[in-house]
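assembly run, all chains below
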Amino acid sequence: MAGSTFGNIFKITTWGESHGKALGVVVDGCPAGIEISEEDIQSFLNRRKPGQSSFTTQRNEDDKVEILSGVFEGKTTGTPISLLVFNKDHHSADYSQIANCYRPGHADYTFDQKYGFRDYRGGGRSSGRETIGRVAAGAIASKILDQLGVKILAYSQEIAGIGIDYAKFDAEEILKNPMYMPDANAAEMVSEKAKEKMSEMDSIGGIIECKVAGMPAGVGDPVFDKLDANLAKAMMSIGAVKGVEIGDGFAVAKSFGSTDNDGFEMKDGEIVKTSNHAGGILGGMSDGSEITLRAAIKPTPSIAQTQKTVNKNGENIEIKIKGRHDPIIVPRAVVVVESMVAVTLVDALFTNMTSRMDKIKAFYQ
Amino acid sequence: MAGSTFGNIFKITTWGESHGKALGVVVDGCPAGIEISEEDIQSFLNRRKPGQSSFTTQRNEDDKVEILSGVFEGKTTGTPISLLVFNKDHHSADYSQIANCYRPGHADYTFDQKYGFRDYRGGGRSSGRETIGRVAAGAIASKILDQLGVKILAYSQEIAGIGIDYAKFDAEEILKNPMYMPDANAAEMVSEKAKEKMSEMDSIGGIIECKVAGMPAGVGDPVFDKLDANLAKAMMSIGAVKGVEIGDGFAVAKSFGSTDNDGFEMKDGEIVKTSNHAGGILGGMSDGSEITLRAAIKPTPSIAQTQKTVNKNGENIEIKIKGRHDPIIVPRAVVVVESMVAVTLVDALFTNMTSRMDKIKAFYQ
Amino acid sequence: MAGSTFGNIFKITTWGESHGKALGVVVDGCPAGIEISEEDIQSFLNRRKPGQSSFTTQRNEDDKVEILSGVFEGKTTGTPISLLVFNKDHHSADYSQIANCYRPGHADYTFDQKYGFRDYRGGGRSSGRETIGRVAAGAIASKILDQLGVKILAYSQEIAGIGIDYAKFDAEEILKNPMYMPDANAAEMVSEKAKEKMSEMDSIGGIIECKVAGMPAGVGDPVFDKLDANLAKAMMSIGAVKGVEIGDGFAVAKSFGSTDNDGFEMKDGEIVKTSNHAGGILGGMSDGSEITLRAAIKPTPSIAQTQKTVNKNGENIEIKIKGRHDPIIVPRAVVVVESMVAVTLVDALFTNMTSRMDKIKAFYQ
Amino acid sequence: MAGSTFGNIFKITTWGESHGKALGVVVDGCPAGIEISEEDIQSFLNRRKPGQSSFTTQRNEDDKVEILSGVFEGKTTGTPISLLVFNKDHHSADYSQIANCYRPGHADYTFDQKYGFRDYRGGGRSSGRETIGRVAAGAIASKILDQLGVKILAYSQEIAGIGIDYAKFDAEEILKNPMYMPDANAAEMVSEKAKEKMSEMDSIGGIIECKVAGMPAGVGDPVFDKLDANLAKAMMSIGAVKGVEIGDGFAVAKSFGSTDNDGFEMKDGEIVKTSNHAGGILGGMSDGSEITLRAAIKPTPSIAQTQKTVNKNGENIEIKIKGRHDPIIVPRAVVVVESMVAVTLVDALFTNMTSRMDKIKAFYQ
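ok done. output:
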């Protein structure tokens, strides 16, 4: 497998399995001179850490990050930054159940088909723990975006069919409830629903929304490396994501040109759009307005209900997935979405620096 | 702008503007020994050619393709295949209207922001004509898939809110109606709706669906280069696409683990899935069942209604977009979707060949 | 074959065979706003055109370049630039001699081994004509370097063992003699030697040297993408090159630290080196002094003498290569070396723009 | 800095500084099913470990490697392999001398020019310790080559002007003398010379030669990704390498077509070459004969003699480099050359698998 690297100029390479010794990421192409500490990265990782509410796996992990290279005297040096988290709670489980069978909704079968065998301990490379590397890299990307005035806000927009009320949108609320919703009331309703489904040994899905403010206009490329194309890849590369929308998304299919087009007007001497159906991206390039995207997350496939499947001997069997599993993966995936968006935007901003000869000339003078 | 290349091993690089001398593509990494003719490629291009029905632009183009390299005595040689289409009808238009203003829903503004100026003739690089290169490359990719037993079927699933009736699904029908729908009745209703909207000087959008049969299991990579992630990028890189779904797509957000999980069972000695909510991809790798995806296409932004916008001098103005524009872009985009899927699958199949040492060893013996 | 693309940000993709319809290049990642004309590119191509002296092939080609995309109103638009040269004199030859045998020193055998068959007309993709695309791209890269104050000078340093006398070095002389040597006297001696070898139906090799002035310090990367590593690849990717040196090259093997190290000193308030054994690159990054490199070119393999080889039927045979072949390839390769150096430097200069956060911040303010 | 990744399909990404916490490499794209242990990798690392003879730095490092991911039950899983070596002896030194001055022959000045500041401890990222990652990856690549019947042999061919006598060539001898020479006598003479130069507080350079047997014909690409081009980049990316030769290398410049061309003949029913001036590569593709290459290594720049340079305040100063430095870097670089060749060959072998449609079809049947 190649395919563990994302980005062209700002490049991240993740590695590690759910129950291996450690997981991590190498961030290559990070500019020199950015102040970064293990605390900066830890604060991102803590948002995806297990065991934070009754709705997440009770696996006991500190997920304590170590910076092994690329930072000197508190600042990035321009050389690759190696970040690592040792797995702590990785010997306890009994994998005999999943070692020989193909769990529905999981990658067990496809791994065996591709590689001939697999590290069957807790999902191996397809575990949600793989996102540790993404989030650690996202923390660094966010540091860069901060300095360029770009702000990302991600949250659960809908879980188990219960959506937020935009009239009550409160960004401060997001980190205060276990659902990472900007609407306390919706979060409360989701919690009730979640408890109900947990008692039924079932799991639920949802939608994560992400908004980006402060992105300069003209970033992204017009053909294959459209900003939205790279964001779509970034989103769909997150396990459990099955759909991606930019701006109005699938609603455009039922829309008309007269209503979908965003007009332009002059406001305080600046060109602004009069609406934002496009979600801040036109022709693959940012248009200066807010970038909006959504990702649909499927229900956690690990459920304790009886499911029909087959084992490696080609026998029809029934299984109940035991162990510590999140009944909802959506809240913990919020910071993963935010991180992948951050990494994608930084790469696009860097790529964009060579689009005009006059600016290149000015740079080198 | 880098960003005109797609694929890692099977690599396509498109070039050309709407009203430049020519448009084309270089296909690098195509294996030797594939029989290919200009007719093979032409038959793909004809499906996206303008002027085929009253619902498409009346621009007069033959879009006749020439193979300039990489094919010898009727077979690919393994060296890059250069394909070119000369623009014929490219001097007639008067661009003074769009040269100085920013059309709503188009990339005029973002091009100017990125590059400082733009080729304003007919959309330049952001024109739908850029897809000529993609479709020409798609014709070659499809030849490869044919030999490997992989079949792609794409069609309009819904236009202007009118969806196909799967009970009446008839693949033979797709190329027979101007809407490229597998349901003659739905196509008829869409035509009525389209005429109505054209009379209102408006445009409509829709959804393209694509199904892939015969894909071997285990193709795709588990992390960033997930098969669905690369398909999502491929789809979103097509101008006017604002949303992408794999399998059940956004519906998973309201689903439960107990209903969304696809079970496995033995059938005639083979492992098969008992349902296909996942759309044929698990953990980023094909699972041997049908791959299904959908792309949402926005209404054509060029409409003859009066729209508010600004010009390059920063003045608020009103414009009516004249000229030859498709009121619906969906039908002509069907072959573009099919082509991008083909290119993505070929690259994934090639990448997959080095996943197991035993198979590599067998290859070199 | 992938492998027809060179560069990461400033990317060139060449295509075309010796006796196909045309040859060309797509230059992707070229910034917008550079004035470029077909004449600019033609002047580069003319330096590698056949038939310019009695020492080069008498094949009759104008090698007239056409710009097909990416340039609008005389300036680059930032979109891919497609450049094409139609082959004119490509139907005349009789290839029956080489179609079935493996010419010594050529790629006939390796092509057949890799691809199963080959375009045997005049060397196909391995022909020197492939460099048309490189040189056309090099003309554009040189335009960029001009604007950044970087100047490249390439010339034949030695042919058939006859080297230039640096005491008589005259840059003006290079384009005046058929050997592209900066020393008229050496060029004269080489011409005599070349005539002698031609009469013996033999061919000769030589060394091309290249010097780069005005390169800012700090360009290039410290590990795999060292500036010298990418230059070495660029040089060795030219057919017939068998050795590459940076600075003192192989002479360092016999040198000592005390003599090989270049000291630093202050001069007019600037840090300068007191010598330049390193050839302007330290640790993979330019050090602000002149970059110097050399490439060794093997004698043209096509010779009219009788040679022993085998045919595709596995029979030992003798052949004499007929046709129009350069007895010396070195002079025509000078502009190829210059072009590949130009492309490599532009890519390194562009990559370098994201090495420091303070400069990125300044760029976006 | 991007630029810490090498390879396209078999991809290695190194990270780490001389005196940071650790150094390592992520190997992505390694096939599943290869038996690999920490011992396998350790045996490679031990060949570059410091302190093995009086001619190498006395820095005290075990360089004990840990496999953190990608290996399960003793076999590679196909997922990225993360390898790490903790720095042990990294707190002892006093860096005040080099923190503020630019050592001749080192990358201190270019690092500061590129990044604005640098990790000045022991060379930071430009330290020879960066090669730990390369060698660890090389151990894995060599495992793959073993299974494909490809054997690499590297050794010191010449040090301080003293070359090996090919008549006495003894491969067994290489690992027995501190010079890694296949000629005990030459090694003895070099040792004498080295002692002499060490007493003069000076350092010496040399040439490493590498031969590859068993490479199938047709591997490598005909244009930019020529096998020799990628090998040249691999060699020149090693710190201290200033020249690279394939086959006869620079000697071809004085050669003639009649003597440089390698003839073909039938031998036991197989096509073989009658000589090997080309060094096993024709037109960028392996020709089935032995691949030969050479890299010139400059003398260690760290010498205890007084040298003139400048400090960061722009003052002319004199320095004597103290500390534990190798007077000859050549012997320890032998395994680095071997490793980079191994990594390059594996990537080329993998890339080659998609060159023919008939073989792809057979693979998928």
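Chain C has nine helices and 18 strands.

The longest strand of chain C covers residues 151-159.

not gonna interpret more than that til we talk
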